[in-house]
Amino acid sequence: MGQGSSIGSELSRACFFSSLAGFLYAYTVVCSGVLLTDTSFVTNICSTKLNVDDAAQCEASDVSDQPSEWVNFCTYFTALFSVGAMVGAFFSGQLSDQVGRKVTMMASAMFFIIGTAMTITGRDTAGVLFSRVITGFSMGLMSSTSQVYISEISTPEMRGMMSTVLPIVLTIGLLSGCLADYIGQGLEALTRALDANWAAATVWQYMLGAAIPPAAAVLVGMAVAPESPRWLMAHEGYRAAEQSLRRLRGLGPALEGFRLGKRGLLPGLRSGGGGGGGAAAAA
Predict the structure, then answer these.
(1) pTM of the model
(2) Any residues with CB less than 8 A from the CB of 25 and at least 6 apart, and which?
(3) Cα–Cα distances in Å, from 53 out to 46, 47, 69, 181?
(4) CA–CA separation, 217 vs 136, rounded Å?
(5) 168: CATH
(6) Domain named Major facilitator superfamily (MFS) profile: which ranges (predicted)?
């Protein structure tokens, strides 16, 4: 009973930390959108980075009345994140096949933390926009790899259920981003009412920074999680894969089925690769 509970907890933890990728992606997308209309962010960019004479013009309701520097910044701020995400997703399969699902997830979490920190502390628009590429790259890399990892460590009976986890986590991320914006607006109004304009100007930084702890959780959680048995089978052999499978599923039919199927599985992995797009499990 205790062993089964421990095994289930190990598998659940691995799936949980991996699924946080969906939360981070959704939260970041929402925050990226609301920041462009957030007074503290608009004022910070227009006044201190773009050096617009009248920062209030950046909040004009008609885009044609807004300074061209601000309009161009908004375009690049949004587009570069998407470009980075596409590049990250494109290379995720090859990279995760070479270095492993765990390492890829950990690296993407680190990139996310660095990119977000650069956005918050950027001294000029070039630094902020470059940070968007890094953040987008990390999201494309993490989101793609997490789905492969979850499908490879899940039991056949769990795969249907686990396939619904990511949409749920995405929805939670979207909701959290909206709540962060709502709370941020309240804090900004409160600090301005108290004449603490210095605090109001930093609200957007806390909104973005709130995503760093979940990213750190992915980094730490994946560091202690087992590697995908399928990847281990292809790169380190049967014994390493079996050891990972023991941690995830324990003894029993799953492990026995893995033993019986190893001869047919290994040649297929070596010829077809671990496959970032091929999410078949090891058992």
Answers:
(1) 0.84
(2) 139, 142, 143, 170, 173
(3) 8, 7, 11, 27
(4) 19
(5) 1.20.1250.20
(6) 14-283
